[in-house]
Amino acid sequence: MTPVTAAPGAPDVQGAARTALLLLADGRFPAGGHAHSGGAEAAVADGRIRDAATLADFCRGRLHTTGLVAAALAAAATFGLDPLALDDAADARTPSPALRATSRKLGRQLLRAARAVWPAPALDRLAAARPRGAHQPVVLGLTARAAGLSPADAAQLAAYESVSGPATAAVRLLSLDPFHAAAVLARLAPDVDAVAAEAARTASLAVAEGPGALPAGSAPLLDLGAEEHAGWPVRLFAS
Questions:
Q1: Is the N or C terminus of the chain more exposed, i.e. has fewer CB atoms within 10 Å?
Q2: DSSP assignment, residue 47?
């Protein structure tokens, strides 16, 4: 079968979406994530992350709890659910005040970047309604929608972010071999894909049933670590 290609001079919409997906997943995208460890700094201090094996355990636990929640919220926002209702749902699913503040700070930075790169009325409305920042997964979902991505893409991005941030931070915190950190992420790929698929599925249910259908998994050690970390006088990462 002859592959279908765009007419000469016509915009390649699918190609643009693939590039947007790569851009949003790139740690160099100016969304502020490089300054945050995703709980890894507190876990290193507590001895829960010591090497590549314990980093993998930490990332897997984060992925299947808060990572799943974030991925579902992002997918739901891409489906077109009310972002303010989703923002309230994210608040209810984030018991730690420190983590709520971090999520809103990251959301505000991502929204600034998204409005510059993919201008959209929905992003402007969210910025006006939440001037101090909406939760990052909600902003990520709206950004994905503005960039022409699907809910499944948004879920994949959020799921990947939940493990890539701690893995990158561990390289700096432990002087971990970057090759070993990359290997951890590669071995987690099937888990990331499964969590993203589950998140997209529950987000599709939320279209009919509302945000209450979204997962609400928790990770108490992350909450406790975030509160402890917020009180440190000296730290390498903001969270």
A1: N
A2: T
